[in-house]
Specification:
Blueprint lengths: L11 E6 L9 E6 L5 E6 L12 H4 L1 H5 L9 E3 L8 E3 L2 H19 L4 E5 L6 H14 L3 E3 L5 H11 L15 E5 L3 H4 L1 H14 L2 E6 L11 E4 L5 H15 L4 H7 L3 H8 L4 H8 L3 H13 L3 E5 L9 H15 L8 E3 L11 H4 L10 E3 L3 H5 L14 E5 L3 H4 L3 H8 L5 E6 L11 E4 L8 E4 L5 E5 L12 H11 L12 H7 L8 H7 L1 E3 L4 H4 L59 E4 L15 H7 L3 E4 L1 H6 L7 E6 L2 E9 L7 E3 L35 E7 L3
Parallel strand pairs: 6-14, 7-13, 8-9, 8-11, 9-10, 11-12, 14-15, 15-16, 20-24, 21-23
Antiparallel strand pairs: 1-2, 2-3, 4-5, 4-16, 17-18, 18-19, 20-25, 22-23, 22-25
Helix pairs in contact: 3-18, 4-18, 5-13, 8-11, 8-12, 8-13, 11-12
Length: 706
């Protein structure tokens, strides 16, 4: 069976899947023209989660695939780093230079001097994760991927014992949908598809809990705008009211929870008045929310990644999931708490990632602390030698990583060699020594799994790539040849071979999956709703988590151990002030949520995305603007101990007083001084298992005078 090239001479519609870093992993129908180019991109109506709906970004993907600024040739830096002077180079010469740089680094400092660095620019298993096979084969420095999911995953699993939950399609069967910590209209459009279906067909109420009036808040029947990092206080008050007013399902908790009596006693002093003072919500708002979910058995709590951007995010996520347990919501179709379905996908990735070659003595470096790693921080380096060579795929740390000034300073080191494999000349690529052009998702085969729903999906190659660009897998295999490890398991296989080898549990190969398009992996109701017990050994939901000993999906290795102020985490669900609180010198909290037409740093190259977003701005409440002599459109300075940047002011009551909102992520050069918002974000590790608190920053604000 051959799927690589469409039938030229006629227009066809082919299946694929969105590759970008989003829980929705939308199933796509893509029009392939008679000339072999892609045209319209639509959501697949045949897929029960995508349900025919996709975001505007991906619907216009042809503009990205055929963008005039797309990288088309390997490039070698000429002149100083970051100077923008490049010369063309052949693929053979580029790969030779990368391999030679890696050998030189290893000879001088040992194998850990090389740090392959990647993330989720593609969620394709083959193109994203093959870099780890090279890492393990060569014993290069490990990669602790902390930046996005860790805090939220950890908090959820502390309660449930497993990273799975109710079928996300059950939102359409709910009588109340609580969208908590995610701007779904902008970032997970399919959540809104199923929530609004419940509202239309069942009269369901939609509650949205967030820190500013974003597009999802505007769709809510009840919108709760709280102070950043105070979600756990709201959850505690809701549970206290549930115990107080008889909404708590005591029989359910007696069977399925570890210490409901202890929780009730703990919450006795954490009622709505207490929570109102912390969250900034009114007592009436908290009471109304508690009454709504308490009286509505089929309440579906859709818990998002906003939790993971705060230093107390694990505690907040655990507290929010605990609400569903106190109410017994898990018992009902259309009820329970869902965050991510990562535990249901049984892919065999040992060969793909080279997991049988892992050496536990090799250090792991935290991706969130790349700035500290590259500037020689001994703790970040695990008290070992420097990193002097890197290959970067699928990510743009010079733009998206915290402590941006440290990151850039590290990349500008004369003794650091960096190769970047990319689609466009990103902020990171601009600082590289070698830049390689990469294929896009319709130009290669890959396999995807969806954290936000329950499908494994095939993304087959639909069109031929430009002759001068190469896949991630090609780069890894070619480097393996030059570095003497190509004979080891996993190297030299095609994408289709890798896909088939990941699927032994499903008794299907690449060709079979090409026929089926996707696999629905959703467990039966009893498993998804924990009707036979939760995922901990005692089958109980843990109101009293063991914050440092509980297994979690991305727990740091024993050589690193628990991170951050884990000793300060509470015994029961509670508000814990390990966030970056305001002080006299820094009276504002700053959050940096995503803009609607960008996806991390992807799509920022698109003209229509930039026109839609306008320019980098900071939302300021009118009271704060007046107090600081700022009017709409003024240039203001934001700063803290990490640095300062200038932005244009947008005066709006969408932001709370005392909270500044800067949507992005904009490229660094879109800002007035050529530095992006992550100059202001911190990389100190989040308790208990790490993370990046990108929405958790204190800053000062002043009107710019020049």
């Amino acid at each position: 069976m051959t799927l690589a090239t469409p039938n030229l001479g006629k227009t066809t519609v082919r299946h694929s899947v969105c590759p970008h870093d989003c829980p929705s992993a939308c199933a796509l129908d893509i029009e392939i023209g008679a000339d072999g180019r892609i045209g319209k991109v639509r959501g697949s109506a045949d897929n029960s989660y995508t349900a025919g709906v996709i975001c505007a970004k991906v619907a216009r993907y042809a503009d990205r695939l055929y963008h005039p600024d797309r990288l088309m040739k390997p490039l070698r830096r000429r002149g100083e780093k970051g100077g923008g002077d490049w010369q063309d180079i052949s693929w053979e010469a580029a790969l030779d230079e990368i391999a030679n740089a890696f050998v030189k680094a290893e000879q001088a400092q040992g194998s850990e001097a090389v740090w392959p660095y990647y993330y989720a620019g593609t969620m394709g298993q083959v193109q994203r994760d093959s870099i780890d096979r090279l890492r393990h084969a060569k014993r290069y420095s490990g990669f602790f991927d902390s930046i996005c999911t860790n805090t939220a995953w950890t908090g959820y699993v502390m309660g449930t014992g497993s990273l799975r939950g109710p079928d996300p399609r059950e939102m359409a069967k709910a009588d109340c949908v609580v969208i908590w910590g995610t701007n779904a209209v902008s970032t997970q459009v399919n959540v809104m598809t199923h929530a609004t279906k419940a509202r239309k067909e069942r009269g369901a109420r939609i509650v949205v809990i967030d820190i500013y009036d974003n597009p999802t808040m505007k769709q809510a029947d009840l919108a709760l705008k709280l102070r950043p990092g105070t979600d756990a206080a709201l959850a505690c008050a809701v549970m206290q009211i549930a115990f107080r007013d008889g909404y708590a399902d005591r029989a359910y908790m007696e069977k399925f929870a570890d210490d409901p009596a202890g929780l009730e006693a703990h919450l006795s002093t954490r009622g709505p008045e207490w929570a109102a003072a912390i969250t900034g919500l009114s007592v009436d708002e908290i009471e109304a929310f508690a009454r709504l979910v308490g009286e509505t058995k089929r309440t579906f709590f859709r818990l998002g990644y906003g939790f993971t951007r705060s230093r107390n995010g694990s505690v907040s996520m655990h507290a929010a999931a605990s609400v569903a347990t106190v109410l017994g919501s898990w018992q009902h179709e259309g009820g329970g708490a869902f965050h991510n379905n990562g535990a249901i996908f049984r892919l065999d990735k040992r060969e793909l990632m080279g997991l049988d070659m892992v050496d536990p003595d090799i250090r792991e470096l935290d991706q969130s602390q790349i700035g500290r790693v590259l500037t020689g921080d001994p703790v970040a380096l695990r008290h070992r030698g420097p990193v002097t060579a890197m290959l970067i795929q699928n990510t743009n740390p010079a733009n998206i990583a915290p402590e941006q000034r440290l990151v850039k300073r590290g990349f500008l080191r004369d003794d650091l060699f960096v190769a970047v494999h990319e689609h466009f000349m990103t902020d990171t690529a601009k600082l590289a020594d070698i830049v390689l052009p990469a294929t896009m998702f319709v130009e290669h085969d890959d396999l995807y799994r969806a954290g936000g729903h329950q499908h494994i999906l095939l993304g087959p190659k639909l069109v031929e790539p430009p002759s001068t660009v190469r896949t991630n897998l090609f780069v890894i295999d070619e480097l393996a040849k030059r570095l003497g490890v190509a004979h080891l398991p996993g190297f030299g296989l095609s994408e289709r071979d890798h896909i088939t080898r990941m699927l032994p549990h499903y008794e299907i190969d690449y060709d079979g999956l090409a026929e089926e398009k996707w696999i629905d992996c959703q467990p039966e109701f009893e498993t998804a709703h924990y009707a036979n017990g939760f995922g901990h050994p005692d089958k109980k939901f843990r109101f009293r988590p063991d914050w440092t000993k509980t297994p979690a999906p991305n727990r740091p290795p024993a050589s690193i151990g628990p991170l951050g102020p884990h000793a300060e985490l509470p015994e029961f669900p509670d508000y814990v002030e390990v966030i970056e609180t305001v002080d006299e010198a820094h009276p504002f909290r700053l959050a940096t949520p995503p803009a609607r037409t960008y996806l991390n740093s992807s799509f920022t190259e698109m003209k229509w995305s930039r026109e839609r977003e306008g320019r980098p701005e900071v939302m300021i409440h009118p009271d704060d603007a007046e107090a600081n002599g700022v009017v709409d459109g003024d240039v203001v300075r934001l700063g803290n101990g990490r640095g300062e940047i200038r932005l244009h002011a947008k005066i709006t009551d969408a932001a709370r007083s005392g909270v500044l909102i800067a949507e992005g992520i904009w490229p660094n050069d879109a800002h007035l001084d050529g530095e992006g918002i992550n100059v202001l974000t911190g990389a100190d590790p989040v308790a208990p298992y790490g993370g990046a608190a990108l929405h958790d920053n204190r800053v000062w604000l002043s009107k710019a005078t020049a």
